[in-house]
């Protein structure tokens, strides 16, 4: 629309993504503080603000001074304790994002420890300070504060992506990454046309694997290495994102949305949506009205 007789135009690419921010906290601890060995299902940024922290990640020891940070992936085994026999303050941020280019950068990143004077630490330092200010604000439940947190998280992703891209530009694009992108593109296309009249494969992951000439297990292993989730988990994430958007942005009935996502009956869709989010589709829609 509006293109005839236009002299020039600039268009932003379409974007469709969700992220989770979980248990972000600023904590001061005494010299006896320790956190036991554990793993998380989310990414983690751990920044020392004052004092010194020793963290062991996957068996390797890192000593963090003020401004030093660790960038951890899901399932990294880590434990921490205060160093030097004095108090310490740190900021911890757990997050997840389903935007494929960022996930690929995060999972392909092989560096865990970033000194305060590293390119990545300096790139995201100002954004982390903003997040710390938001975290300690007493009005954290206000709409303005929540929107500020969302905006700052997107700024963090932008700066993090820029810094990680600089690290990975020198590395060749792996065959695994290319195959994973093909799988993800095919799953995206499947969800987009799932409600069309033409017959769709009953097991789309199996069909995509056949089309690419690999076994389902091989495709699953490659995809997991690149994106940190299986193709079926990615398919669920794409369906959930589309379901949320349709519930928020359209006036379609829940039954119509369930059909658009390929569910035979509304009850199956409602059960699955509640399993994903902890809410029924109708309850989720009411929260955004």
Verbal overview:
- The protein is an alpha+beta fold and 289 residues long.
- The protein folds into 2 domains: 19-168, Jelly Rolls; 175-287, Orthogonal Bundle (Arc Repressor Mutant, subunit A).
- It has 10 helices and 9 strands.
- The protein has helices spanning 100-108, 119-136, 143-168, 175-192, 204-212, 216-227, 231-249, 254-260, 266-277, 281-287, and strands at residues 19-29, 34-38, 43-50, 53-57, 60-64, 69-72, 78-82, 88-97, 113-114.
- The chain has a 5-stranded antiparallel β-sheet. Strands 2-7-4-5 form a 4-stranded antiparallel β-sheet, with no helix packed on it.
- Strand 4 and strand 5 form a beta hairpin.
- The longest helix has 26 residues, at 143-168.
- The relative contact order is 0.10.
Weakly predicted, low-confidence segments: none
From the 3D coordinates, which CATH architecture of the largest domain would you assign?
Answer: Sandwich
Count of individual beta strands: 9
Global Rg: 22 Å
Total domains, how many?
A: 2
What's the CATH topology label of the largest domain? Jelly Rolls
What's the mean pLDDT score? 88
Going by CATH, what is the homologous superfamily of the largest domain? Regulatory protein AraC
Task: Bin the helical content.
Answer: 40-55%
| Main beta sheet strand tally, sense and closure | 5 strands, antiparallel
Structural class computed from helices and strand pairing: alpha+beta
Strand order of the largest sheet: 1-8-3-6-9
Number of helices: 10
Oligomer: single chain
Shape: globular
Question: Strand fraction band?
Answer: 15-25%
Distance between the termini: 29 Å
CATH hierarchy, class of the largest domain: Mainly Beta
Q: H/E order of the elements?
A: EEEEEEEEHEHHHHHHHHH
